[in-house]
Amino acid sequence: MLTSVGRGLVSPAPVIHANGVAVRHIDADTPVPAGASLSVHPGEVVLLLGPSGSGKSTFALTLNGLIPHHLDAEVTGDVVIGDAAASASTVAELSSRVALVFQDPDAQIVTARVRDEVAFGPENLRVPLAEIATRVETALRRLDLWERRDDDPDILSGGGRQRLAIAAALAMGTPAIVLDEPTANLDPAGAAEVFAALRDLASAGDHAIVVIEHDLDELVEVAHRVVVLDATGRTVADGSVDDVLRARAAELDALGVWLPAVTLAALRLQRAGVPIERMPLTAAELRAAVAAAPPIDATADAPSSSAARTPADASTTAPAANAVEVSGLTLRHGRDEVLHDVSLTIAAGEFVAIVGPNGAGKTTLAQAIAGVRRTPRGTVHVRGADVARRRTTRRIGFVFQNPEHQFVAPTVREELAHSLRGRSAAEVAERVDAMLERFDLTAHATRHPFLLSGGQKRRLSVATALIEGADVLVLDEPTYGQDRARADELLRLLGDLHAQGTTVVVVTHDMQVVAEHAERVLVIERGRVIADASPAVLFADEPLVRRARLRVPPLRVAFADLPGQPALSGVMRLADLDAVRGTAVAG
Amino acid sequence: MTTATPIDASAPTVIRTRLGLDPLTLFAAVIPASIGLVFTRDLVVPLVFLGIGLALALIVSRVSARVLALLVLALPVAIVALALLFALWVDPATVADTRVAVGIAGRDLTVGALTVGAATALRLAAITALLFAAGSAADGPDLVRALVQHLRVPYRVGYAALAALRFVPRFARELDVIRRAHRVRDAAPPGPFTALARGFGYAVPLLAGAIRHAERVALAMDARAFGAHATRTEPRVARWHRLDTAVVAGGWVLTVAVFVVVAAS
Question: Is the link from the previous residue into A68 a cis peptide, with omega within 30 of 0?
Fold first, then answer.
C-alpha cells in the first residue's frame, strides 16, 4: 500500500504544504483551526480527521485559497500550493492546482446537463475547446457517467450527482483534489458508489488527494497518511494509518475523533481484558483479532445481546394499547401510488426504525402515521384515535429532517408556548420552563430559534414535538447530513426518551443507528412493507439486505457466527460489549 | 434518456433557436411593439398584438396540449379579472363615458372605467404574450450566452442568474415541506390576516435556507474558477446573420403598420 509513493529518501516537492494555519472569522474571537499543518505529495492519499468543530472544512477551504480570497477571514501560517504562497496567487492559478469537492452534491451543480457541468470549470479557465472535450470524456468515463452525458444532473441519483462533482473536479486538471465529507449526504448505496470511485482514483495514483470523511471503513486501505486535528484545530498527529489510527486509537477516541465502529468495539474489548495486538480498522480485521483471542465470556448478570433487544423498558410502563395502528393504507402522490395497502402496528414504548431505498415511501409512511399527510379515514389510528378524524392529534409529534422548517415563533420560549395556545398562562409558563430545562435550552429561551446551533435547533424541534404531551415521536432522517457529535447527541436524547416510555419511530439510512437503538425494523420497498423484524433477524437475511439497498452494520459483519467466540455471536451494538470479559482477567 | 451526442471537439457550435434564429432576434423584433403598447389607450392595438404574440408563441414553442388548454381557458379569465380590477381602480372622475354599466362591490362601474380597465388588461396580456413568445424560442443558457456575446453583459452576471434559476425547483420542494411543517403546528391563528401571516411565516425558513444554499453554490462555483478571468471559453457562440436582421426589420415594419393602420381607421 505504501509503496511507490514519494516518501523515500528524495521526496518530490509537496503539491500542498500547509504549516500552522490559523483562520479567524471576522465575527469570532478565537481562530479555528488554530494551527493546522499538512502536506501532500503527488500520488499521496491523506485522510484528514478531527472532532467536530475543529475547523476541518475551514482548513480545506484554505488549501485552494477560497479562504481568504473569497471568504473574509484572517489567516495566519503558510499555505504553499505548488511553488507559490496561496495568499500571493490568483484564484485562477489556485483553482488549476487544487480542486474541491463539497459535501452537498446539490449545491455544486450549476448547469442543466452532465457534460456541460464537467466542462464548466475548464471553460472558466479558458482551456481550448478541443482539450475541454478530451477532459470531459476522460473524466466522465472514469466516473462511469459517460453514458449519462446528455442527462440533466437532477435525474441522477445522489451518488451519481456526487460522482459528477468528482468528475467536474478531475476536469479542472489539477494535481490535487480535496474532498470535504463527500458521502455525508448520501444513502448507503450512494456512499458505496462514491467510495468505489474514490478508491479507483486513489489507486490510480495520478492525484494528490486529501479526504475529510468520517466513514473510514472504506478508505483506510487506500490512505497513505492520516492527519489529525484536535478540538482547537491544531495538527496533533501526522503519520501512517498504522502509526496514527492503530497505535493511537484510544487517544483519538478521547479527542472526539470519530473512529470506525469496529475500532471502538476493539477498544472496549481491550478495556475488558481481551488481548488485541493490532488495532482493527475494518470488520475483517476485528473478526481476525477476536478469533485469535482467548475465549471471551459474557458476564452472567449483564443482559445478553438478544435480551437487550426486547422492549424491556416498555414493560415497566403501563402496557397500554398499541401506540400506532395502520390498516390497509394506500396513498397516492399525483398518479403514482406511494404506499400500497400497508398494515402494521407499533406497540407503546417500542423503538422502531423505518428503512429502505430512496423513494420507497419511508417518509410518506412516517408522515401519514404522524398526521402530517392526510390519510383516508380508518386507516391510521394513534392511541386508538383516528388521525384522519381529528384535525391534529396531540398524542404524536413529528420532527422534520430540517428543524428550521417547523419553527414559527421569534423566540425559543414562544416557539414552545405556541403549541400550548388556549391554556392558562401559568400552565404554559410551567410547562415551557420544564421543557427548556429538560432539553437544556433555558439559557437560550429569548433567542431566535434560527440563531441556535445545529444541535440546539434539533433539541428544540424535539421539545416542540413533545410539549403537548405526545408520547409517540416520529423523526424523519434525524441524523442525515449531520456530523457525528451532533448525531450522537440526538441519539442519546432519543435513547433517554425511549427509556422514559416514549414510543420512537425513526426513518433512517444509518445502519449503525438501527443496530444500536432499534428494537424493530420495518423495511419499505416500493411502497410496501417487505420485512418487519428485529435488527438481528434483518441483518442475518443477506438477500433482503441487498434487495433493500441496506448495509450490514460492521459489528455484525465482524462477529456473526464467529467460531470459538460464542459470547460475541450476534453482537452488533457497542453497548453489548460492556457485558463481556476477556478470560485473561475474568478469573 | 436522450440520445447521447458525441462531443464535438474543436470548433464552437453556433447558437440557433428552433426557428434558425439568434436567441435575441425575436426579442429585438418585438421590443418596439412592447414599448409602443405601453403608450396605447385603445382596445384594438393590444388585441392585434395579443393575437400576433399568441400565434408566434404557438409557432415558436413546443406547447403541450395541457399548457395550450390552460392558455385558451385561463387567458380570457385572467384578462376579464384584470380588466375589472383596473376598472375599479381607475378614478371615475377622469373617464369620459359616465354611463353606468354594472354595479360591483358596492360601486357603480361606468362604461368609461370598464374601457380603461379592459384596455389596460389587454395591453399587459399583449406585452406578456410577445415577450413569452420571444423567450420561449431560446433555451436559457443560449439566451444568456447571446446576451453576454452580443450585448457585452458580464458573464458572471449571466451565469450567476442561470445558476439561480436552478434553485427554483429546489425552493418549490422546500416550500412544500415548510407548509406541511407549519400546518402541523397550526402556525397561523385564524383571522383576516391568516394568509399574510402564513406567507410571512414561510418566508423566514425559506430565505434562511436559500441564503445558505446560495452561499454554498457560490463557493463551489468560485472553486471552479468562475469569474477568475475576464472571459471564458464558450462552446457555443452567438452569430448575427442577415436572416436575423431581416426578421427584426420585418417585426418593426409590422409594428409600425399596425399602429398606423389602427390610428388611421
Answer: yes
